[in-house]
Design the sequence.
């Protein structure tokens, strides 16, 4: 419209002309209408028109601008943008401040532990509009936070306080869940990585001899994803195992756990079977014990016993008992004669069968005849 000094201006609210004393009448910026202190009476549809200085006709009325006046000073909402419950050192944390339903133009101010003193911008933090970001959380970042919004010379209320608690990442604990550290080919073992809290809040990493294992080697089912299973031990499995955890959707890992070292023997073991007897021959009525042993292997074995054929495990008749690595015949009978085997079981793993042991039970008549013959020899001597 040219130089504003060539025009005089009229102002309207809801199509009613406003008194001249409500407008800014200074010559320098008389085309500006200022509301110095907003109140309920200022809501409405504002328009203006102009007339040339010393002219007699007004310009067409302008397009309207509608101002709405809220009845209360706004109180912003403060929230923590984080996907899991606990917040740990080293993680990136963002706080968000928002004036709900209000128009743009806000600047946000941030406070910690007390209102009134605005947060500075330390090296590991930054303020960006409505967000306050801690790039690498430390224990010292724990505390109460507030925000408020500013627009021009106007300030919102303070938000409600938000308590932020930063925790040290817990130490991962690696345990042997099932199986043994001294393994044989095809044997199974399960390792468990344990961290404080619900295991579903964590993602897990596994290491062997300091090298991270591929994810497809671990059990990734949600129910027990903190387990690492070896389903069939082989030459690639010996080594020192460790684990670490990371909060779900987090960015930092816990300290690496204690190690557990697994060894894998080259061959499936073959137990040794022996007869615990102080004399060469065995007679009816005597107590007999057979012993089975996996030489040099760790504990955890259950022993199985067989007679006359492999594959069909011995039952436990009234006059016999199995006790760990021993099979005891309490009172030998002629029917106990035959070939015996044993083998060892640990979980779902089985050893080889032992070599067979032939057991011959002699009757009382044989023993009496031998005794008479021995006595006769002694008399003749």
Sequence:
């Amino acid at each position: 419209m040219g130089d504003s000094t060539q025009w005089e201006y009229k102002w309207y609210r809801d199509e009613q002309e406003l008194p001249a004393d409500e407008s800014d009448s200074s010559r320098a910026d008389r085309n500006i209408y200022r509301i110095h202190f907003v109140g309920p009476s200022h809501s409405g549809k504002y328009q203006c028109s102009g007339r040339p200085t010393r002219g007699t006709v007004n310009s067409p009325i302008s397009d309207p601008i509608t101002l709405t006046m809220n009845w209360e000073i706004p109180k912003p909402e403060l929230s923590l943008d984080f996907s899991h419950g606990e917040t740990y050192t080293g993680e990136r944390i963002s706080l968000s401040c928002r004036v709900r339903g209000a128009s743009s133009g806000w600047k946000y101010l941030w406070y910690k532990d007390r209102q009134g003193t605005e947060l500075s911008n330390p090296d590991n933090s930054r303020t960006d509009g409505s967000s306050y970001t801690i790039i690498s959380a430390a224990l010292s970042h724990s505390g109460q936070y507030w925000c408020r919004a500013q627009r021009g010379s106007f300030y919102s209320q303070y938000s409600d306080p938000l308590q932020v608690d930063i925790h040290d990442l817990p130490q991962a604990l690696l345990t042997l869940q099932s199986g043994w550290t001294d393994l044989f080919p095809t044997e199974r073992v399960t390792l468990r990585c344990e961290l404080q809290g619900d295991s579903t809040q964590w993602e897990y990493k596994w290491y062997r001899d300091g090298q991270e294992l591929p994810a497809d080697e671990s059990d990734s089912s949600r129910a027990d994803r903190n387990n690492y299973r070896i389903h069939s031990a082989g030459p690639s499995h010996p080594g020192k195992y460790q684990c670490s955890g990371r909060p779900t959707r987090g960015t930092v890992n816990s300290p690496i756990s204690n190690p557990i070292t697994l060894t894998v023997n080259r061959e499936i073991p073959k137990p040794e079977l022996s007869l615990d007897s102080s004399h060469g021959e065995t007679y009816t009525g005597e107590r007999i014990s057979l012993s089975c042993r996996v030489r040099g292997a760790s504990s955890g074995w259950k022993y199985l016993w067989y007679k006359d054929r492999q594959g069909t495990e011995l039952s436990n008749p009234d006059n016999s008992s199995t006790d760990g690595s021993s099979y005891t015949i309490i009172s030998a009978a002629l029917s106990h004669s035959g070939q015996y085997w044993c083998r060892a079981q640990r979980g779902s793993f089985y050893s080889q069968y032992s070599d067979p042991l032939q057991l011959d039970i002699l009757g009382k008549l044989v023993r009496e005849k031998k005794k008479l013959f021995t006595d006769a020899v002694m008399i003749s001597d």
Q: What stands out?
A: The two ends are 153 Å apart (CA to CA). Residues 24-28 have pLDDT under 50 and may be disordered. The CA atoms of residues 239 and 341 lie 34 Å apart. Residues 4-67 form one domain.
